[in-house]
Design a protein that fits this description.
This protein is mainly α. It has one domain: Amino acid/polyamine transporter I (Up-down Bundle). Helix content is 66%, strand content 4%. The protein has 15 helices and 4 strands. Strands 1-2 form a two-stranded antiparallel sheet. It has a two-stranded antiparallel sheet with strand order 3-4. Strand 3 and strand 4 form a beta hairpin. Helix 6 packs antiparallel against helix 13. This is Amino acid transporter transmembrane domain-containing protein. It is a multi-pass membrane protein. InterPro entries: AA_transpt_TM.
């Protein structure tokens, strides 16, 4: 996450009474990476003296709890409930370790952004690599958000089975309940206004609401699962993966990109810290956010997989389109889908915030004006990115496919490979032997697991396309 640091000089005109002045007066205004997107205002009712701890927890938690939660029950289908929950906890622990590395090396190098930290360790190339990965990852994540919104509101088709969306279920199939039109209305009516906000702390209220909506989804899903368990209509879930051959072993690694993507919040850690009233609180904020999100992830995975078992889809919301054999089934289905659709809309601007800034840093680093001060550039970058996301959501077949691509490439670099590389590079000589051993293990594990995941997905896709059609 980077904010282009620029220094501007504003030259004052000579006053007629100062004819003997030999030098022109100059005022230097520094816009650095620690500045919030909108400077703190003094006086009036709009004074901003720093974000609160609660607001920061909500913003960081909302960054973490995005679309990844919808695919986690499907990873339980791959890994089994016991192994799946263990891996969720492991990824959370590794995420905390990598964020601590970023914060510790930021303090040592005096940097106030992830991009600045990569630049400190690896020069301009490292900074550009980070910005490129954030752009790729966040575009992929936001495309996933849009795909899920399309699935929920307009419907989807999978393996020849059509899953009607909310509008089709309520009003029937019409042109205005179709996917393209629905996504266009959502983009123009909801996402554009939310994406136009320029300061992260402005989103703390919507972030809190987004977390609350995720909890609503969890409560309803858990309630349905508990009701059916008590009625004895659900089988016991698998605790371990179903291994039937070497291909099923390779298939286990396809869950890795989803789990990696679920915890990617590194690009927003520095902006959250920079807007804090007390920046030293960032580490407990990270810990609280990770504990909260891990709890929600485990509960969602547990109850989602118990409820649907091996029928769990890559986007579990698509399972909530039929009779669940519980009282008020269709009403509960609608509550689940509406609550999570609203959640994704409210999470969208936080991820888009980082995407826009890193896109600007990647392509317009030579600009003299900061992004928030240049309205034309701000609008152009925002409209361009929203257009790419809209098109991607209409042409990429499923959220699971997008998860596999972003999680196995850009996300693993942002979350694990880059932080571990910073510790191994250790330009300030502060890394311990344990830091370097852990970092080397993380890089090796990340590269191996994601290489196998890419191979397994490519093999499955090739096999699917080459198989004779009935």
């Amino acid at each position: 996450m980077t904010i282009q640091a620029e220094t501007h000089q504003i030259k004052k005109h000579k006053h007629p009474s100062r004819k003997n002045s030999k030098k022109k007066d100059s005022v230097t205004v520094a816009v650095n990476e620690k500045s919030p997107l909108i400077p703190k205002k003094k006086g009036g009712n709009h004074e901003f003296n720093g974000a609160s701890m609660s607001g920061a927890v909500m913003n960081l938690s909302t960054t973490i709890i995005g679309a990844g939660i919808m695919a986690l029950p499907a990873t339980m289908k791959v890994l089994g409930l016991g192994l799946g929950i263990a891996v969720i906890i492991l990824v959370a622990v590794l995420t905390e370790a990598t964020v601590k590395i970023l914060l510790r090396f930021s303090r040592a190098g005096g940097t106030d952004s992830y991009g600045g930290l990569m630049g400190d360790a690896f020069g301009d190339l490292g900074k550009k690599m980070l910005e490129a990965c954030v752009v790729v990852n966040n575009i992929g994540v936001l495309v996933i958000y849009m795909i899920i919104l399309g699935d929920v509101v307009a419907g989807s088709s999978s393996n020849g089975v059509h899953h009607p969306g909310l509008l089709e279920g309520w009003f029937g199939p019409y042109w205005w309940t179709g996917r393209v039109f629905v996504l266009l209305v959502i983009t123009l009516g909801v996402l554009v206004p939310l994406a136009s906000l320029k300061r992260m702390d402005s989103l703390s209220v919507t972030s809190g609401l987004a977390v609350a909506l995720a909890v609503v989804f969890l409560i309803v899903t858990a309630g349905i699962a508990i009701f059916k368990l008590a009625a004895g209509s659900l089988p016991m879930p698998r605790l371990l993966p179903d291994i039937t051959g070497i291909n099923s072993v390779w298939n286990l690694f396809t869950a890795v990109p989803v789990l990696v993507t679920a915890y990617i919040c590194h690009f927003n850690v520095h902006p959250v810290r920079n807007e804090l009233e007390n920046p030293s609180l960032i580490e407990p904020i990270v810990q609280i956010s990770l504990v909260l999100c891990t709890f929600v992830y485990i509960m969602t995975s547990f109850f989602g997989f118990i409820l649907f078992g091996d029928s769990t889809m890559g986007d579990i919301l698509s399972n909530f389109d039929s009779d669940l054999d519980v009282p008020f089934s269709y009403l509960l289905n609608d509550i689940v889908r509406v609550s999570y659709a609203l959640h994704l809309m409210l999470v969208f601007p936080l991820v888009f915030y980082a995407l826009r800034l890193n896109t600007d840093g990647l392509f317009f680093s030579s600009s003299e004006l900061a992004l928030e001060s240049d309205n034309k550039r701000f609008i152009a970058v925002s409209v361009g990115l929203l257009s790419v996301i809209f098109l991607g959501a209409n042409f990429i077949p499923s959220a699971w496919d997008a998860f596999q691509f972003t999680g196995a490439t850009a996300a693993v670099c942002i979350g694990f490979i880059f932080p571990a590389s910073i510790a191994i590079r250790d330009v300030h000589g502060i890394a311990t032997k344990g830091d370097k051993i852990l970092s080397a293990l993380m890089i090796g594990l990340a590269v191996f697991a994601n290489a196998v995941a890419i191979y397994s997905d490519a093999y499955a896709l090739f096999k699917k396309n080459s198989s004779p059609r009935a």
